[in-house]
Amino acid sequence: MAFLELYKDRLKHNYTYLEKLFKQRHIEWGVVTKLLCGNEDYIREVIDLGVKEVHDSRISNLEVVKRIDPNVQTVYIKPPAKRSISQVVKFADVSFNSSFSTIKLLSEEAARQNKMHKIIIMIEMGDLREGVLGENVIEFYAKVFELPNINITGIGTNLNCLHGVMPSQDKLIQLSLYKQLIEAKFNREIPWVSGGTSVTIPLLLKEMRPMGVNHFRVGEILYFGLNLFTMKTVEGMKDDVFKLYAEIIELYEKPKVPIGELAENPSGELLEINEDDYGKTSYRAIIDIGLLDISPEYLIPDDPKLEVTGASSDMLVIDLGQTTGNYQVGDLLSFKLRYMGALSILNSDYIDKKII
Prior knowledge:
By secondary structure, the chain is of the alpha/beta class. 28% of the residues lie in helices and 26% in strands.
């Protein structure tokens, strides 16, 4: 069976790098754990780093966090569904919101649970996912300030998550100005401007972060060390916190071109044949994972000579080239993962998860 390994020392290395980066700039931050898909062992490793604030998009994952350490501040990072309001108030200390009707329900539920529920109101800044439109911000805040058992702890935005709109100094300045406008209008303090995510770290490294942006929520760069502007590893960070291992279950030299009449495969793909491949062969290894576990484009083989050439539901085919490279049946191939690939693997019950 294929398995995933999380390396504690590499995770701690990246966490220490980020903690220093934020502390030097007087920025508060929390770790996003949605990638871990509620795996209690992995979440415990994150909390044991000294994390005081955890962000997640699944209530059940925040319940795991509270079970491990009730003192960790939990943040629900998408607008709550009305049918989950009671659970959000129970397990999330803070939630992201953009609809007044939902915040009103949170207010009512918080009163029933005798709690003060914190919210971050999300502002639309161009990526067209969640967020109140800028022209409606003042009116929106005026209504929310009247609700009991609700504490507006921040103003925030999401960028790059849907249409790929990148953060910029101008957009983050605009977000900071909304905060100043609201505070001046209502004489209320808004502690956080939560404009920072992994994709914003490159601006921070270039000292292009507006000083008003004082809160970050970070996941991808912690686990992968990736600069999402350049798509290269940030200098001083590790890109192999996670490694996937899969076993070779068949290895033969075979033709490069299929034999017979071609039709669409079960994935709806029709193979385009390179005429230069007729008559050629290569060594092909089959490994014990498939599309059910991960999409091939999210795999990065540690051996650069390997190429994923095909996939079915439970098996992937790896082209080894003109030699076996000393590989044989039973050997393990190792891979680094892209974010969405790790998300698939961590959400799969068929892949063992280990801690090294």
